[in-house]
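Support request, please re-run this one:
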Amino acid sequence: MVMIRVILATFFVCCSLSTFGQQPIQDNLNQTLPSTEPITDEVHRLLESAEIEYERNFSKAKAQLSKVFQLLQTPTDSIGQQQLAKALVIQGVVLRREAKFPEAVASYLQAKSIYDSNGDAWNSSDVLHNIGMVYRYQNNHVKALEHYRKAIAIKLPLEDFHGVAAGYNMMGVSFRQSKELDSAKIYYDKARTLFQKLSSYDDVRRVNNNLVALFLNLKNYEEAERIALENLQHAKQHGKLYSLCVAYRNASNVYKGKKDYLQSLQYIDSSLIVAKNQQFRDLIAKGYLRRSYLFAKLNNYKKAYYEYRIFNRHSDSIFNIENVKKVQELELNYKFEQEKREMELIAAAEASQKWLYFVLLLVISGGGIVIGFLVYVNNKIKTKAYKAKLAQEQLQKELLDAKVRNTEEEANRLIADNTMRLVFKQELVEQLKSKLNQDTVEGLKKSLNSVLTELQLQISTEIKHSSLQNKITEANKGFDKLLREKYPKLSKTEREICALLRLNLSIKEIMTVRNASLDAVKSTRYRIRKKMGLKTGEELEKFIQNLR
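Re-run finished. Output below.
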């Protein structure tokens, strides 16, 4: 009887301990939404002000955000983290409107990470919407629509109808810019209807701004002009500089469509003044492009060319492949980290459950479980050791194969080199025999001088080849590794040709070094271009020399 009581007591103690051990993981999986109460009145005031000022004064908004980040530092409590996430989102909007797209996405993803860790789906969906807008600015409408739809799918169950309407509005923009005008009209109407039901008249104005462009596409200039001038007046009255800049540009679009180029030029000049003052980089670039077009229409081609050059300078600093790659890389890294974190939580939960089962089985089964566990551990160690041994043997085999290949290549080079030298010596002997048959001393002397000259030329050529081979070896140290990482499909011969091109050798020189025909070298160059994905007209030599 006493033994039974001891076993029962031990069972309940173990269950309590296992439940206690499982609780932190359960807390991680079921975190509650953090309080929205601000850390301090100062931080709250600055955030509210910055959220208003990015529509009016970028410089002031950035200064307020800087103060917020100084005050928050690295908060550990949920309230401070929520405030930090909000500041990061506002910063992302400012950076996006300055056309600093990779920095904007980095800021958004940092905010999303905080919201996701706190289970804040509402604000996390807002971040998805903002990332979609970055893709729209980069004219990647497929990715933009994908993010808008994800955001709307989260917002609908939460009844965030304002966010849903904003998503519809941006979907309309992407469809319009993709020339799907019917779809654009449908989503603009959805957005305007929702905003009107919510009495959000500023947002109705934003939809109207976008409708101006749609009516222009549909060549309904009267309706486009009416809405554009109404929006312009509204932006002036409320001092919203970004909206004002867009409104001036929309008015310019209207008069461009009506072929009133002087009037269009006046409005785009007004848009440029606001954009330059507030550093709206994308609108500055678009403004110069519009001026170039209008001057061309007014037959002032010199001025049009000058404006287009300015546009190119601004555009190249904003819309480039490197920025697109950075944005995609940031988002992929974020997704990887999210998946990794989820797997860690699942693994932790599974580990906790296994521990609970193990304790229960230990109490019930006693020594039998201990023996089974020891057998399991022993088998696992043996399996691990066997796998490690196999991996080591495989590695040794690969190293040996590589060594054999290198030895064979070196032997082949030596054989080829010795063969060439033997041929040269045989030719030299034949020349000596023919030259020594001269009848006169003067003729013999002249023949010997000729042979000496050829010998010196051969020695000079071999020295140059040796020096060139050393340069190739030196240049190829890090370059070969770079080619393996970036273009793993390149063969060893193709990588060697790349190294020679990097030294700026001509095709004729490569033929001499490789002892190859012109057709062979040209064929290798063609394969290299194809594997590197070069476009027609892009120089292979410059591309290789710029690889880093």
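The two ends are 78 Å apart (CA to CA). Residues 398 and 404 are 10 Å apart (CA to CA).
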